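Intended use. Records like the one below are meant for learning the mapping from a protein sequence to its folded structure. Do not use them to infer anything beyond what is encoded.
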Amino acid sequence: MNRVVLITGGARGIGLACAQRFTALGDRVAVTYNSSAPPDGMFGVHCDVTSSESVDAAFNAVEQKFGPVEVLVSNAGITHDGLLLRMSEANFTSVIDTNLTAAYRVTKRAAQGMLRARAGRIILVSSVVGLLGSAGQANYAASKAGLIGLARSVARELGSRSITVNVVAPGPVETDMTAALGEKRLAELTAAVPLARIATADEIAGVVAFLASPDAAYITGAVIPVDGGLGMGH
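Structure written out for the chain above:
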């Protein structure tokens, strides 16, 4: 492999695992970050995914370094949990903007080069919560569910140009985000998973890499659960 891969939110967690997986495959990998910089040796571009100007600048930097983006992994995301009656409108809209509208921004920007090349892979990182719902996460669940409609619509628009658009829907994963939940909540999550454990970030990265591989050339508009069976039937 020698593709140009861009991963948003690639400095840690699932994004970093994806970056390391693609790098190991021989791809030229760039990651965007906002707060924490990526590890040494990885090409990182500071980007506020809630700003179209910042997204465009990040793509310009990647294109100048490597060339047009051939594989996009839209992974950047945040949470602002709270029960509906206690959730501020600012906390609702900020999660939607970062998790969903940002995916529209980066997908639209990546599609420009992919259309010219008549090829490309776009993978959006959603969540089992987008399918199941989760008390206290109405904003997060709405944003992650919205990615499915976005992906399937864009898949229909771009499919004739050999551009695939797919969604990965992880369950609980070992990341800083889940670690912040505390041992009690993690135990509750684990107990709900049929496989009785939470995933490693690398297990999610493996599915992302598959969707970008030649073996997945005829898969588009799909939602691939990587959740230990937590969301089966949805």
